UniProtKB/TrEMBL annotation:
Native organism: Helicotheca tamesis
Domain of life: Eukaryota
InterPro entries according to UniProt: Hybrid_Histidine_Kinase
Protein name (record): KIF-binding protein
Amino acid sequence: LENKHMALAYVIYHNRTWLALVFGNYELATELGEKGQNILDKGCSPTFSVCCHAFVYGLASFVLARKTGQAKWKTTAYECTKKMENWTQNAPSNCLHKLLLLQAESAILLGENKLASTKFDDSVKVAGDSGFVQELALVHERAAMFYLEQGDITKASHHYG
């Protein structure tokens, strides 16, 4: 499938990556994300989903970087963040909330919890203002998980609704 129908294979990997992320299977999300990235690296034509791929793959990579401590996932996460920074310059209404969430996850990885909190808040506002409700829900979920890890039930409850 990958050799004959690269675009279709990419779309399948991208959507499966999203599902794995949503259901908390970060290992599978990064495995599928890596396969999708390999297709993109072969020259699959760019679409808006390429930006979404970097977002989801980067997010799952940040989670695995914290979980495993492996440099591979840190590198992947930061590469995805760098791509998002570039795209945000040209399309902030589509990308800024994604970048802010990746930056929040980066701050967590670096132990900068106050910065992470600020980035989560900013991402919530921008995602809501831009109308990305599915990604707004994801930002709220990631923020709630962060606050639960910090032992802050009040803030976690705010994000879980």
